[in-house]
Amino acid sequence: MNPNLTALLAKTDQIMAGKFAAPDDHPGPLHVGVDLGTAYTVLLVLDRDYQPIAGTYQFAQVVRDGLVVDFMGAIALLKQLKAKVEDRLGFPLTSAASGYPPGVPLVEVRATAHVLEAAGLECTGLVGEPTAANNVLQIQDGAIVDVGGGTTGVAIFKDGQKIYTADEATGGTQFSLVIAGARDISFEDAEKLKTDPRNHNELFPIVRPTMEKVASIVRRHINGHNIDTIYLVGGTASFPRIAEVVQDYTGIRAIVPASPLFITPLGIAMHNQPV
């Protein structure tokens, strides 16, 4: 795994919390990534050494299972995030890369590029989310599981190369739906409960069956592959004990790196090569 991962993710957390001011001088190209997720849209800016200098994110349901379902809403949101980061940096952003889950049709991948372009960002690259995550993790052998808002994506790496990918419905949206049903509350209120760490212990028994569904997806797709470690990324991987459930189901060590929500956006930004 990336020996600098802990420091990189700690700095990213500080950037996203607004605790770091961008430096005055930005020699060389900047690398910008946009992750249009099912639950969160993230915009992240890296310097020429691939260190985070600015970024922001917001909950929004403009994408479903990797498909842009609210084109105008996605554009408006990205314009808003772009303006916020540009105000922080003091200069405009002109290009960015974006990502997509495994198995998304090419026409839908192009729709993601069109969102960036309509928001004023030249799309310089589109990268699969597992590959983006491994730009950051730098694992040679193992499985990366991206538990997002709508889907669980599985990618298997051998000698640093991706040899298998799959993506199935089930993610953080399903967590919120079962909480809403169990508590007889709205989806929006369930989402707020889910993202508040103070509620995690009492919500765990409610969401555990959905975690087990995620684990069953992982177990099915890694079957037959010689995997010794599963790396869980994506915003839903932030929910405590998900690694425990996946490990119990698969019999394989499962770990959640720090700041799992930002790992894929970091890797997308690393993919951006400004023109």
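That was protein one. Protein two is written in the same sequence-then-structure order:
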Amino acid sequence: MSLAGIENEDQLELALSEPGPEAIAAMRDVPGDIALLGCGGKMGPTLARMALRATEAAGVSRRVIAVSRFSDAAVRDRLESWGVETCSGDLLDEEFLRSLPDVPNVIYMAGRKFGAAGNLPLTWAMNVHLPALVAQRYSDSRLIAFSTGNVYGTVDRRTGGSVESDEPNPVGEYAMSCLGRERMFQHFSDVQSTPTVLLRLNYACEFRYGVLVDLAEQVASGQTIDLAMSYVNVIWQGDANSRTLAALPLAESPAKLLNLAGPEILRVRDVCERLGELLGHPVRYTGDENDDALLNSAVEADAQWGPPRVGVDDLLQGIAAWLQRGGERLGKPTHFEVRDGTF
């Protein structure tokens, strides 16, 4: 899959919602409507659109329903223009949660990260209490729930990254609350026999946000790059979307754990040097490099579906070209460089 020629947001969102063969196969094999809870964020809209496109490509019919507060009305309008149904409300409102349609497939995307340290009770309510409510509300559905590689803690890059069988070692209350989210879904999968997959993601990236965009913006503006978090792995958001849909047939009880990540462990210094070449800027650094970082191994997912469609250098070239033409950005830094777990 080539990212060359993407010049505007319409083209970008079309690329981000292009389903891979694994997503189309899943939409053919898994019957019934799909609800995406917490769908108004960075990944949700293009994932919902991909579900519709994969459904059409599979030659079947289903409703795709996006649920969010939709604080940005333009996001809701865009979803509806694509044919996605929408429901607006606060998922922590149990009456609203009960009012949502009964569907056999649920993708759970709600959560709180940025600003987590500023209101820790709300962070725990969103990341632990709400998953328990959702798991009970949709006890008879197939559940896919997003988690994060932060639950593993840092590992030495020479290990190849954390694998699904590793014991969690979360650092900071955000990561702890994300492990709490997993535990709620695992508990209700056990006691209700709800088929579930927990997706540990590190890190989805496109042209408007992500780790590589953070680094590209710093390089382009002449900022000094902090090398404290010296390694990272990323995955094109379109590939993360496709694998999310493809995970639906894998749902089981007890809940299945699955890493979503790129196949490579990237050295931040090397990434910045390449961005410096593409953007025509020298790069300055500060701090010492460390061998440990938040890293996921995607060996299991790659064995299931093969390598991602988009390689890192294609993504870097696309991001650099996007920045040079003044393309829209979301203004939501990932803070991937944080080592103490405080977000």
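The radius of gyration is 19 Å. Keep this in mind for the problem set.
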